[in-house]
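Work through this:
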Amino acid sequence: MTTIDIQPQSQFFSNNYWRKLRQVQICKKDEEESITETVMGKVKCDINQQFQHLKSVISAKYCKQRDILATTSIDKIVRIFSMDGSLKHQFENSSDYDKTLSFSYNGQFLACAGAYDKMIRIWNIDSQELQFQLKGLKSRILKVTYFNNRDDRLISITQDNQIQIWDIKSQTIIQSLTGQQSLITSIQISNDDFRCVTGSVDGMIIEWDLKNYKLKNQWKGHQKGCFALKYANGGHTLVSGGADKKIKLWNMDKYKLFKQFNGHSSPIYAIEVKKDTVISCQFNQTLMWNMKSLSIVQQISSTQLDYCFVEIMKDSFVIGYNGNGIKVCDFQ
């Protein structure tokens, strides 16, 4: 796959950008093929179910409190699935499709955003109705994420390089964080909700203090865009991936690079971590590798994906799948 130059910044996440990356292949469910790549260790990864939409799935989000999976698609529908792959219910945005999802801590609410209307929709999972909309943003929304341990705080990132912290009860922005000079592409909140990190298309990484709402530290993480971030080891380690095809492990006590994984052949767009296992995704391949030894455990090859994402569930994880579904892979 040819590396796409993501400059200028205004094209990132735009329709033109994704159109360049996307080679749509609508795959019927009965034509699904098994993974045949070699397993280089004891960990096995197979397709065991497929969650369907009418068109390409953009992202997925797992809710551990309720053991359900939410997916959003360019068919303008957000679907909620049980773990056996059956559809529980769905929410539809008639104006445009949402691109980013986040469950509240208790799993009762699902935040959806990314459409052109610059609004965040909060859906009630129990009543299956739209609870309310968060309005007032002046730029398109790229990311939304609830805090990990509370239902009344939500972070949004907009295309004007702004970070907004919302109070859900009052439906207002209580603080805006500024300082990232280029388009923000990724965000990760620490498990204790005291800090978060953001990455941008210029390769910069910034860690923010979420108690005092200020910048803690910033550094050049990647020579090109930083697209994926994940805290590990209780927040003492940060795993970052970018357009330079490198995954870097940072000591967050000293803000120093201490390891680097060079196993990818194209930009990395998504990262998840479970204990010492890292799952990292480029558009035509997903790698599972050991964070301590930097050795590859599993390779999951694919043809060109429509969208690139990974989400960890209980004993499995989901990744993007060509066409209108996703792959669910087992750790064991």
About this structure: Residues 9-330 form a domain with the Methylamine Dehydrogenase; Chain H fold (CATH 2.130.10.10). Residues 123 and 131 are 5 Å apart (CA to CA). The two ends are 30 Å apart (CA to CA). The longest helix spans residues 15-21.
